Description:
This protein folds into 2 domains: 6-301, Pectate Lyase C-like (3 Solenoid), CATH 2.160.20; 313-418, no CATH class. It is mostly beta strands. It has one helix at residues 43-49; strands at 29-33, 36-40, 55-58, 62-64, 68-71, 77-80, 85-88, 93-98, 109-116, 121-126, 132-139, 143-149, 158-165, 169-175, 186-194, 200-204, 214-222, 230-234, 242-249, 261-265, 274-275, 280-282, 289-292, 300-301, 313-316, 321-322, 341-344, 351-355, 364-366, 378-382, 385-389, 392-393, 400-402, 409-412, 415-418. A hairpin with a 6-residue loop joins strand 32 and strand 33.
Amino acid sequence: MSFQPVNRVKIVKPFISPVANVDTPTKKVVLIHEGTEHWFDTFYDAAQEAVMGDQIIVKANITETQPVEFNEIIGLHIRGEGRVTVTWQGDGYWLRFKSSAWYRSFNNHIENLIIYCNGNSGIRVEDSYLTTLRDITVVNPNVGIELATVNQWCEATNLENVYIRDPQTGIKLAKYGGTGSFALTKFDHVFMALSKASSVGIDIDGNSVSDRSFFDHVNFWVVYPANNAVCLKLNGGMDRAIFNSLCFEIPDDTQYPTGVIGLQFGSNFSGNVCFIQEPVFFPWNRFYKTIDNPYGKQFTCYARDILGKPPFKVRKITGTSFDTEDLVVFNEDSVDFNKHIKLKAGNTTDYLELIGGKDTYKYLYIPNAGLGTAAYPLVWVDAQILYSQALMPLDNNSDFLVYPPANAKLRFTGDVYIDSLPDM
């Protein structure tokens, strides 16, 4: 892909301002063009005069009734000064960037705004490159922020310090045409507060391609009555996408939402994605499913566990039977103590080999409910050394915490369920 020069951008409308160099207290929005300030009553009026490289600064709280569309603009900076709010009382999206090709809409910035949507939608970015949305709060939107491809692709969008409260859909990546590519999208300190039934925090469309995207410190907070909410829906291509420090929480309250899913993998999900740290579900037992993975999608996790599932592979050595296939990564659809990995020993010589070492997994968590009435001993086989470890109580419920040696093989007797330690 070759970079197209800026001089290919055609600015159709010249800059003509009906109000120039007039600074009055009644006017709330300033447009800075070639170093000169031009004041307007509304953001919409200022936007009609903006061209490449201009700044639009919102100086005081404003109420907008007309949607704003920037068609093929480069280097525009929009920002609020102080803690200013935009109350959006129109229909659809308040702010929209669009173009016929990525090089006609790139390096635009929207910063430091609080947008009250009243059930309408916030910001939509189409077919653009290197768009930055920083220090943005969107309240009560239908869709808070949408990235879309219509004619080409929408790549390298930077979402930084974004808070979306009470959305139906917080952030959406969707293909309507074009390539569907959202490569290199960055979610950096993004927070979702879900309170509506069937709401979705982040929705990655099944026809999209978000290769090499980065999700860093993305948090979801789910409260009643957000029944059947889904925090993070991953669908489409996401090869080499990286996830770090995801947190899903249903906080203490007098009533909790039901049917909540934390992380959901769709049928079109594909790619070798990596979780640098395990996602945190707090507390895990308030979720209907922490992971919903009905299509058996695989991913990599470089942490002690992921959502209560061991981040290592297992291999059946002898006649041991269990409820998953051989040589699979445990990425099952939920942390449900009725659906743990069930290990059934036919005799005392059966064992499982855990492929990995202490850097890959730290411990196993064995719920007492899976042990029946007796605490069965475990035997670890590490090279030529045989380790015998009794099960030690973990808490008042008599669960057990077990530390396996590096490259260990597990022998056991009786039927047990094995899971990694859930987040407390």
